[in-house]
Amino acid sequence: MQLGMSESARFSTAEEACFRISYPNSRPRKSRIIALDSASLKTLRDLAGLTWNGARFLSYVAPKPASDTLHMLSVDAELEDLGGKRSSLVEELADADVVVMVTTAGNAAEAAEVIGNACFVRNKLATGLVLSAPDVAYEVLSRTLSNMRPFAAMLVISNGDEYVGEMLSALRV
């Protein structure tokens, strides 16, 4: 009995090669990585010096009333980049492809809600990264995860700052 070609072998043939896309993604991602508290901002400051592809590192400052251009959401937020320049959450999300919220265990309820809802209204998936440590009580971590869960399509716990950089690389930030 002779076995047929596997799918992998069949798709490697010259006949199938004409269907391959032979050029790289023509549009790099526009990522917004937002620190929700001061401890996670320190982590982002350390990471910002590395080479990233279209990423903007920001920090959540405070919620603010909705503008005239924001009819579907009752709040906006003020963000600040690492250089101190302030901008609106709505402006930052307008052309963002990837949104990552970074916080430490014990923080983020209000910020995650504002950012998560703004992403939802604009059909943008938000990812949450929670920085934990061995000395953080399970209840504190659990409360943070419960607060962020409704607002993040993917929620990841990190026990070390180095994992944040690896996660951002995996998301092609």
What this model shows, in words?
The chain is α/β, with parallel strands linked by helices and 173 residues long. The chain has one domain: 3-Layer(aba) Sandwich (Rossmann fold). Helices cover 35% and strands 25% of the residues. The chain contains seven helices and seven strands. The chain has helices spanning 7-11, 14-17, 38-48, 89-94, 109-121, 138-148, 161-170, and strands spanning 31-35, 55-65, 75-81, 86-88, 98-104, 126-131, 154-158. The chain has a seven-stranded mixed β-sheet, with helices on both faces. The longest helix is centred in the middle third of the chain and has 13 residues, at 109-121. The protein is globular. The N and C termini lie far apart (49 Å). The mean pLDDT is 84.
Topology summary:
Blueprint: H1 7-11, H2 14-17, E1 31-35, H3 38-48, E2 55-65, E3 75-81, E4 86-88, H4 89-94, E5 98-104, H5 109-121, E6 126-131, H6 138-148, E7 154-158, H7 161-170
Parallel strand pairs: 1-2, 1-5, 5-6, 6-7
Antiparallel strand pairs: 2-3, 3-4
Please supply descriptive tags for the structure shown above.
173 residues; 7 strands; alpha/beta
Low-confidence stretches: none
Largest sheet: 7 strands, mixed
Give the overall form. Answer: globular
| Helix residue percentage | 25-40%
Question: Quick summary of this structure?
Answer:
The chain has helices at 7-11, 14-17, 38-48, 89-94, 109-121, 138-148, 161-170; strands at residues 31-35, 55-65, 75-81, 86-88, 98-104, 126-131, 154-158. By secondary structure, it is of the alpha/beta class. The protein has a single domain, classed as 3-Layer(aba) Sandwich (Rossmann fold).
